[in-house]
Every structure is written in C-alpha cells, then in structure tokens.
Amino acid sequence: MSIPDVLRLVREMGPEWLAWRALYEAELRSGLLSRRFRPQPIERLLARSLGVEPPDLNHYLFEKWEKAGSHFFLDRDLSHYREVVFNPDRVLEVANAALEGRFLFFSRWWGDLGNPPDWLLNPVDGVRYPGDIHWSLIPDLSPELGDVKYVWEASRFPHVYYFVRAYALTGDERYAEGFWNHVDSWVKANPPELGPNWRCGQEIAIRSFAWIFGLYAFRGCRATTPERVALLLKYLWYNAWHIEMNHWYALRCIRNNHSLSEAAGMFTIGTLFPFFKESARWRQKGFNHLVRETMWQVYPDGTYMQHSTNYSRLVVQLFTWCLRVAQLNGLEFPDTLRERLQGLLRFLRSLQDERTGRVPNYGSNDGALVFPLSSCDYLDYRPSLNALGMALDGKRLYEPGPWDEEAEWFCRPEIRRVAGSTGFTSDIPGDSPAVKTEESGTVFPVGGYYVLRGRDSFAMIRCGRYRHRPSQADMLHLDLWYNGYNVLIDPGTYSYNPRRGWVNYFAGTSAHNTVTVDGCDQMKKGSRFVWSNWAQGKVLEFGPRGSTLVFVGEHSGYRPVIHRRFVAQREDAFLIIDDLFGDQGEHEYILHWLVGDLELTPNASGALITLGEDRLLLRAGCTQKAVGTWARGEENPRRGWQAPYYGEMLPAWSYQMLVRAGGSVRFFTFLEPVSGHQEPLPLCPDEVSGILRVWGLGHLGPIGSEALARKPGGPLALQR
Using 50, 70 and 90 to split pLDDT, how confident is the model at 12? Predict the structure, then answer.
C-alpha cells in the first residue's frame, strides 16, 4: 500500500481504527492470540470458576438451571404454536432433511454434510477445513478452502428452529433427539479454540441463540437429559467467556453488526443463566454495549451505518430477541434506543413492496436470517419487522398473514401478561395493524436514501455522504419496483470469497444502476472489505414540483468528472437524466440498468418489459452518438448477474448505453406503464423537453448547469 493510500485510509477510517487494527494484526502474527485463547478443557475452567469439584459439575449445573429464576419467551407447551406454523409440509421437509445431514443453506439451497454432519465441510467446493489447528491460524479468505461462510452456516444451527417448529406440529421426539445429537457431534468435532467455528465471535453468539432456543423448547422431552443439559450449559458459559475476551476486536476494529451480535450473546447468557459467576458482568456489559453501539450504528433517521438492508434486518432480529429476554426478566432498554429501533422500522417499511414484503437487495447481503421462524421467503421482511413491532409496543404492522408466525414465537400474549406487560391482550390475528403513512416522497438525509412512490410503483435512490466504511461503489444507484416486481435491481453480494474471479463484480460500480466512467469504480478498491477515496454524494433537490416529485443529486467519485442525476416521478412514470461534465477530455461513459430476470423484448434503445398482465416500457437516449446493448448471464465480460440469495448466482438482464466522447454527455431514460405491444424508440432531447413541459418542469437546461435543480434559497433554476 502506497503512502497516499495509507494517508487516505487514516483520513477516512480514522487514526484510532488504524491503531486498533494494527494492534490486532500484531497479536495475530506474534501468536499472542493463540496463547491467550489456548485450548483448555472447558469442564476444568468452569469448575474452577464456580468453585465446584469437576465430578459434581453436571449435577450442579442442571440443578441450578432447573431452579434459576430467569424466564425465556417460549411457551412450555409447544402445541400452542401448532396453529400458527404456516406451510407445515415445508417445515417438516427442512427438519427431516436436517435429521439426515442435509441442511438448508442461507434459507435457499441444500448442502449435504452427511450423517452425523461433518461440521468442517465446505459443501460447495467439497473442501474440509482443518479442525486441529488454532482458529487464529485459519484465514477468513482462503482461496484454497473457499468461503468460510459455507462452513459457518450450518454451525449457526438454523435447523434448530425447524426442529422446534416440526415438534410443535407433530410432537415427534425425533426432533428433540436430533437437536441433542447435533450438539453432541458438534462438540466432538470442534474442540475449544480449534478449527474455523471458533474464529468469529458473532458466529459463536448466533450459535448460542439457537442452542438456547432448542434447550428451552425441548426441556420437557425424553431426549433432554441432565447430562446433555449440563454439556450445553458448559459450552454456553465458554461461548460468553470467549466473546468477552475478544469483544474489543469487534468494538474497535469492526464495529458493525458483529459487535451488536456479540453484545447480544453476552447479554442473553448473562441474563438467562444467573448462576454463572460472570453472569452479572456479562449481562451489564452486553446491555451497555447494545445501547451504545445501537445509538452509534443506527443513525438518527433510522438508517443503518452499513448501508445494507439485510444487515438492517439482522439488527431488527437481534433486538426482537433481546427485547423479549429483557422484558421477561425485569429489564428495560432506554427510550432513546427504542426510538432508534422505531426509526429503523420506519426506514425499512418505507423501502418495502407492499405486495411481496420485499425491499431492495441493497448493500452487503450475507444471507443472514438468524431466526428462521416463518415459512415466508427469505426476501420477505414482513415476519421480522412485524415481530419487532410487536416486541416494541404490541402492535402489528400488517394485516394477518403467514408473516405472523415469527411474532407468535417471540410474543405470545399469555407470556407477555405473565411478564406484566400491558397493551397486548388478544391473539395476534385480532389486533389492528399499525397505520403506515403513505407518502409520495420520503427522505432519510443522514443515511442518504430518497424514496419516490407512485400509485403502483416506487423508486429508491442512494445519495449521501459516507460516515462509515462503504461496502459497495454504487453512489446514485436507483432501484425501481412496479406492481410487486423489482424491475431495476441491485445485483446483491453472492459470496465474500468467491472463486473464478468474481470478487469485485457484485460490489463494483458497473453492476449497479448508475454511470461508469472509463471502466473504473467510483472508489478505489483496497482489501476485500475496504474501499478508499470514498465517493461522496450531495443532494441538490428533493421534493414536489406541482404534481411531480423530483430528486437531483450528484457525486464526484470520478473527479474532475461530475455525475449529476435528475429523477422525476409522476404517477407511475419515471424520467431519469444523467449529466456527466467537468472535464473536456475524452472519456468512456456507460449508463447501466440491471433489470430483473423478467420477460422482455429488447432492442438497442430499451425494452418492453412484461410483468404478468402489465407492461413497462424502458427507453434510453443520449446527446452523443451511443451504442445500446443487452446481455444476460454472460461471463466474458461479466454482465447480467444477480444474487438475491447468498451463494447462488442467477442471470439478470443488463442494459448498457456506451459513449466515447470529449466534453459533456447527457443520458436520458424513461420508464412508463403501457398497454399492448410497443417497440422502444430512441429517446431524444426534444421528446424529453416535451415530457418536462407536460409535467410542469420547464425545459432542458445546458449539461452541467443547475437547470434541473432548485438553487438553495432561490427559485427553480429552470429555463421556461
């Protein structure tokens, strides 16, 4: 790394972050981490902590757990949940497959780990991670071993939630036995501090949640013996100990959803198992970090620092869990934190498609669905948002539907009444949904998100100043939805450690709905998760002009070239004008639209897109001689791919309009619903001027002027 790159990194990430990161690397390379976390028998450590002789430890732990005064949110009689489990055939399919060692990875595709499961196997590449060396010696991003998340996913134990749901449906003890067999085999395959499954504190915390869920769900089953309970309690204690010992790394070097997950793990174990000597400290430390980190990570407008809708949902699920654990054990999070969570809900709901429950697949998407307690699709956010809404104030967010199941598992009314809560006195299907304000335009200025809504459509535009580390080079990206279809899409993530050279494709500028200059990204790519020379956006206007909603914003990631984007929405039609200006030299400009894998009739000027019984016409044009092309699922060059689910790459339609020219360039794009078959014709400046006049927006101004923007404190800068 060059000196200018280092200085830029210090300026953007801060000297404190750089110092902590350097300290961690020094500890890692010197072997200090492996000495601090040296493999030791858990039983001996815990017996010493509790002041109990090792032969008496199992009896001590089981007795203490039986008499603990803490409360968990599950009803002891799981048959009470039978009526709310939606799509029971699918639940039983996933649960039965897991009994045989076939696991549902990332809520989407199957991976076979064998029976008993090989917890160290990467099923995608058929490579087995080493289980006999210290975790600090195993790289996160090994080209030989493949994506470590393919190993971590099954070790999160997401199948436990299917076991519990299947048991609620059938009362079949096989699912309880399967849970305990998997815990036993995992413990044997993963000695303390050895192998990849000890490398990440977040993974340890998420695994702990699943184990705790299974422990309380199956507590009355024949398979739940005192010896098995004691074994699980030993590992839960050690999990919290490990997390606490290395939590500074998540707090200082990562400081994102990892630090929240680890804090939630400490808080949960410290609260539910008060008989551990460290429990009071873990509970308080976890609680304090949850509050401080949330107030720092969730911006005042409800947007999330990682600029990822999926990581925002992860925060939603973590706090649904933590709120319920707190409420049932006499603890309350401060109102300021609850207000931030309400803001997070408002943000995600503003991006939500009402028909499908989906939101733009924006930002990093690592496939996380920590609590799969619904049969809705992974991309449907209604189950998680509804559950947090219920946990916060006992109000549903939607009309009754299959998305209610997750809220039922977390917030059954009789449990809340036992806890002394008020305002939740009837079954979920009888409650009235919270009212959602329908607004044509919604702004989240701190995070930099702008939402324009029509009658059957909406668009999200990303434009703002990065305060924290970005994950994708996609300033001015536009996501567009119509009648439940994601028409202009975000490509997603696919994998954090993909093979075949796909590392930079999904996070790069060229895959997003924006303009690329000279084939470069808007920012400079550093290591796998680091960008430097951040492209900062600036909004020039957002709001109504008569009956038309207008957005104008720009970024200077290609300086001296400036990219300014104008978006106007009227009813369900959208006009987008992209200006590239600021340098008279010759450049290659590519306007790109990534369209979902829909039925379409393309040509060089756009496409007629068929959406069920509806049709949407996409047309494009340019002030310079341009070439428009379509591609779908091409590998050389890489074009036309999407990854709505982690680890799965699917084709999509990629439209590019390419211009090589000196001076300024202006692109036009127009999308409108149409009836019947219409061929896309080139969009010319005169026609665009006509649309602007009809919409009450005046005429086109010169490229690079603020002719399409409202000047601060002044009248509209429009030529009339």
Answer: confident
With respect to residue 130, please indicate whether it lies within any of the assigned structural domains: no
DSSP result, 540-608:
EEEEEETTEEEEEEEEEEETTEEEEEEEEEETTEEEEEEEEES--SEEEEEEEEEE-S-EEEEETTEEE
- CA–CA separation, 344 and 582 (whole Å): 37
- Residue 341 sits at the vertex; the CA angle it makes with 163 and 215, to the nearest 5 degrees, is 25
In a domain, 296, yes or no: no
**Maximum C-alpha span of the chain:** 89
Nearest-5° angle of CA 335, CA 336, CA 339? 85
Q: Report CA torsion sign: 345, 348, 350, 356.
A: negative
Do 462 and 389 share a structural domain? Answer: no
Average pLDDT over residues 46-73: 96
pLDDT tier, 15 (very low <50, low <70, confident <90, very high otherwise): confident
Categorize the per-residue pLDDT at 420 as very low, low, confident or very high, splitting at 50, 70 and 90.
very low
In a domain, 144, yes or no: no
| Half-sphere exposure (Cβ direction) of 511: Cα atoms closer than 13 Å | 28
Phi first, then psi: give them for residue 256, nearest 5 degrees: -150, -140
Mean predicted confidence (pLDDT) in 291-300? 97
479 phi, psi to nearest 5 deg: -110, 130
> Is the peptide bond between 644 and the residue preceding it cis, with omega within 30 degrees of 0?
no
* Distance, CA of 255 to CA of 263 (rounded, Å): 11
- CA dihedral defined by 261, 266, 268, 271, rounded to 10 degrees? -160
Residues 431 and 454 occupy one common structural domain: no
Half-sphere exposure of 534 (CA within 13 A, CB side): 19
646 and 519 assigned to the same domain: yes
Q: Enter the DSSP assignment of 111.
A: E
> Domain range spanning residue 12?
1-30
Contact indicator for 92, 156 with CB cutoff of 8 Å: no
| Residue 329 and residue 322 in contact, taking contact as beta carbons nearer than 8 Å | no
Instruction: Compare 21 and 510 and report the one with higher pLDDT.
Output: 510
| Residue 705: Cβ within 10 Å count | 14
Q: What span, in angstroms and rounded, lies between the C-alpha atoms of 719 and 697?
A: 9
Q: Which helix (H) or strand (E) holds 674?
A: strand 665-674
Token pair for residue 471?
A: 């994950």
**Alpha carbons 391 and 410: distance in angstroms, whole number:** 8
Question: In the numeric block, which tokens belong to residue 26?
Answer: 């020094």
Would you say residue 385 has pLDDT above 80?
Answer: yes
The number of beta carbons lying within 10 Å of the beta carbon of residue 68 is 13
Q: How far is the CA of 700 from the CAs of 46, 514, 703, in angstroms?
A: 73, 21, 9
Instruction: Give strand pairing partners of 555.
Output: 537, 563
CA 164 – CA 155 distance, rounded (Å) = 17
Tell me which amino acid residue 63 is: E
Residue position matching structure tokens 């422990």: 215
Element (H, E) at 221: none
Burial 540-573 (b: 16+ CB within 10 A, else e): bbbeebeebbbbbbbbbbbeebbbbbbbbbbebb
Q: Cis link prior to 400 (omega < 30° from 0)?
A: no
**468/487 Cα distance (integer angstroms):** 29
Residue from 502, 482, 511, 509 nearest 673 by CA: 482
Q: What are the backbone dihedrals phi and psi of residue 498, each rounded to the nearest 5 degrees, phi first?
A: -80, 155
Per the prediction, the chain carries an average pLDDT of: 92
Structurally, how many domains does the chain consist of? Answer: 3
Q: Do 645 and 496 belong to one domain?
A: yes
- Give the chain's length: 720
